């Protein structure tokens, strides 16, 4: 019997960010392994014209929850969606709902965040810092609370090369930052943002670091733990391999490369690709929830959920396997044949951006205009290049994260728990994982049918022929121009022709 699964039985659990990538997998696993849990409260806002109930309905009816419905048929009754907006005071939660949350909650998993790299500082602070502070205040009023688990990121201190399981202070206190956001206007905030974030690459990593400081400062008597995952990718094993539902991290770039838009990226092939499957993060999170509540460590423990020091894979190997998988399972209606490459040099990278990205987009837009359609490729390409430039920081560096706490926790688990809540990435086979990841992107993100693979392959063959034809035409034009101007070029040309005729006659 799994001790962790048994621990969550009968519990009332509060999850923020349950509609997000990680939140959904966390809910799924909880319901599947502890179907006898009492209730999961989720804080949900309305979005894209959908009510909170409609959003929950959509999640429960997705492929991800198919197994849950077999194990826990009354899952609908066990989810309590509470309308909340983490940008508002008291999260805009009604009095009755707040009362219920305060009096019943046993465990909190705080996953909500803005993960956009380019969010204005004010918004990133509101969600990643102020909302965390408010949630801690709520937690301090919960008499039955056993553990508060905060999800941070392994990159909150990406300005360092070696990162320990400790909270590193930021030069300006989070309280001062929160206060200043109240009276500074947007223009001034934009001006001081680069100075505040210092040697971090974006507002996301900076505000996640501030969020950790808030957790440390406001922890009071709470029983808290922080989890720092690295780059979270598709599921490894559970509930099935390859599930992914958003474009963050590598997923968007896999699509861009598979559709032939992305042909080159400035990345260091030997740098460690510290990817971690989302189900591994969720297993560790649930194990940490159990450990924190049952063993009540004296201080706030931080757990690095990373792969690099256990089972490293580099970007070169990952890129190679992604491309190899495109050969077997190509994406439909590709713009060009997938053939992406890594370059480490900024000048080469700019050259490829001009030749392999911008030029084909301009040519295609010209063709669209000629055929009376609206040009769109240049805009799309500019967006893609902007995204790539934001991710470049993370694919040109390697970090070392110490993992004493994570290893300690692994050794505390019973063999059954080590199996059910497996977070040992030493067992991960990267080649198999990446292949399933690409397949998952095709199935769950692009919603492409496997039956369309022969047609996709046929389309790629057509693209290859067009490519050869285009190159041959280009070569002939260039050569013709050269021949017209140089006697030497003419001599070489006739020599080659004579040789060809000679060999053909033999
Ligand atoms: C041999 C070569 C082989 C090559 C093979 C190639 C593949 C193999 C290896 C590749 C190396 C991987 C490196 C990963 C490193 C990750 C490091 C993460 C580290 C930190 C981890 C964390 O701790 S935290 C989670 C990460 N946090 C994000 O990762 C958010 C990023 N993101 C944004 O910060 C915003 O997204 C940003 C970008 C501002 C745009 O902002 P924006 O306003 O221009 O665009 P929007 O987001 O509004 O989206 C507008 C339209 O772009 C679509 N789209 C959005 N993202 C997209 C995306 N990534 N790729 C494509 N398309 C995307 C979207 O679907 C919309 O499409 P539509 O318009 O049709 O609806
Ligand atoms: N994905 C990754 O690679 C990594 C993620 N992390 C951390 O993991 C956690 C989860 O990330 P992930 O699931 O990928 O992120 P997602 O962007 O998929 O999910 C974010 C969640 O936060 C919710 N949220 C955002 N703003 C509000 C708001 N104002 N009110 C209520 N809810 C809100 C979103 O709700 P809605 O659906 O309404 O938008 C969504 O449920 C985050 O803390 C992130 O920092 C750490 C390392 C890597």
TrEMBL record:
GO cellular component: peroxisomal membrane
Pfam families linked to this entry: NAD_binding_4, Sterile
InterPro entries reported in the protein's UniProt record: FAR, FAR_C, FAR_NAD-bd, NAD(P)-bd_dom_sf
Record bears the keyword Oxidoreductase: yes
Chief localisation class: membrane
Gene Ontology biological process: long-chain fatty-acyl-CoA metabolic process; wax biosynthetic process
Keyword terms of this UniProt record: Lipid biosynthesis, Lipid metabolism, Membrane, NADP, Oxidoreductase, Peroxisome, Transmembrane, Transmembrane helix
Parts forming coiled coils: none
Entry membrane topology: Single-pass membrane protein
Fatty acyl-CoA reductase C-terminal domain segment(s): 357-448
Catalytic reaction annotation: 24-methylpentacosanoyl-CoA + 2 NADPH + 2 H(+) = 24-methylpentacosan-1-ol + 2 NADP(+) + CoA; 18-methylnonadecanoyl-CoA + 2 NADPH + 2 H(+) = 18-methylnonadecan-1-ol + 2 NADP(+) + CoA; triacontanoyl-CoA + 2 NADPH + 2 H(+) = triacontan-1-ol + 2 NADP(+) + CoA; hexadecanoyl-CoA + 2 NADPH + 2 H(+) = hexadecan-1-ol + 2 NADP(+) + CoA
Subcellular location: Peroxisome membrane
GO molecular function: alcohol-forming long-chain fatty acyl-CoA reductase activity; alcohol-forming very long-chain fatty acyl-CoA reductase activity
Domain of life: Eukaryota
Residues in Thioester reductase (TE) domain copies: 15-284
Residues spanning the membrane: 466-482
Function: Catalyzes the reduction of fatty acyl-CoA to fatty alcohols.
Similarity-based family: Belongs to the fatty acyl-CoA reductase family.
Name the record gives this protein: Fatty acyl-CoA reductase
């Amino acid at each position: 019997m799994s001790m962790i699964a048994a621990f969550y039985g009968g519990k009332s659990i509060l999850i923020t960010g349950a509609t997000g990538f990680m939140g959904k997998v966390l809910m799924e696993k909880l319901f599947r392994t502890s179907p006898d849990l009492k209730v999961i409260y989720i804080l949900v806002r309305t979005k894209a014209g959908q009510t909170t109930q409609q959003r929950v309905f959509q999640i429960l009816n997705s492929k991800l929850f198919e197994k849950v419905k077999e194990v826990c048929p009354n899952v609908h009754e066990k989810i309590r969606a509470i309308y909340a907006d983490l940008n508002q005071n008291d999260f805009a939660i009604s009095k009755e709902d707040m009362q219920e949350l305060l009096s019943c909650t046993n465990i909190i998993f705080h996953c909500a965040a803005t993960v956009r790299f380019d969010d204005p500082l004010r918004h990133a602070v509101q969600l990643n810092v102020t909302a965390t502070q408010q949630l801690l205040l709520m937690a301090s009023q919960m008499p039955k609370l056993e553990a508060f688990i905060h999800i941070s990121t392994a990159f909150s201190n990406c300005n360092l090369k070696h990162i320990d399981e400790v909270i590193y202070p930021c030069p300006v206190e989070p309280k001062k930052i929160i206060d200043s956001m109240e009276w500074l206007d947007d223009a001034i905030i934009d001006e001081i943002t680069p100075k505040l974030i210092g040697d971090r690459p974006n507002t996301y990593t900076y505000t996640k670091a501030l969020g950790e400081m808030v957790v440390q400062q406001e922890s009071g008597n709470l029983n808290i733990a922080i989890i720092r995952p690295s780059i979270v990718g598709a599921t490894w094993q559970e509930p099935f391999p390859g599930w992914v539902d958003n474009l963050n991290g590598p997923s968007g770039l896999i699509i861009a490369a598979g559709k032939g838009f992305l042909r080159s990226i400035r990345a260091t092939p030997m740098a460690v690709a510290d990817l971690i499957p989302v189900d591994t993060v969720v297993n560790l999170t649930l194990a940490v929830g159990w450990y924190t509540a049952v063993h009540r460590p004296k201080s706030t423990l931080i757990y690095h959920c990373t792969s690099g020091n256990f089972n490293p894979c580099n970007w070169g190997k990952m890129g190679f396997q992604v491309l190899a998988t495109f050969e077997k399972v190509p994406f439909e209606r590709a713009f060009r044949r997938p053939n992406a490459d890594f370059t480490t040099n900024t000048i080469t990278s700019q050259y490829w951006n001009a030749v392999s990205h911008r030029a084909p987009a301009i040519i295609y837009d010209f063709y669209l205009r000629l055929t009376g359609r609206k040009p769109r490729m240049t805009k799309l390409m500019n967006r893609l290049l902007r995204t790539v430039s934001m991710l470049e920081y993370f694919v040109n560096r390697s970090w070392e994260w110490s993992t004493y706490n994570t290893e300690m926790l692994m050794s505390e688990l019973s063999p059954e728990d080590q199996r059910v809540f497996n977070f040992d990435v030493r067992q991960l086979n990267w080649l198999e994982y990446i292949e399933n990841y690409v397949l998952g992107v095709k199935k769950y993100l692009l919603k492409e049918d496997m039956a369309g693979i022969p047609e996709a392959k046929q389309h790629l063959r057509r693209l290859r022929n067009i490519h050869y034809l285009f190159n041959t035409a280009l070569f002939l034009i260039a050569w013709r121009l050269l021949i017209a101007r140089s006697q030497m070029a003419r001599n070489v040309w006739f020599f080659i022709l004579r040789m060809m005729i000679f060999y053909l006659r033999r």
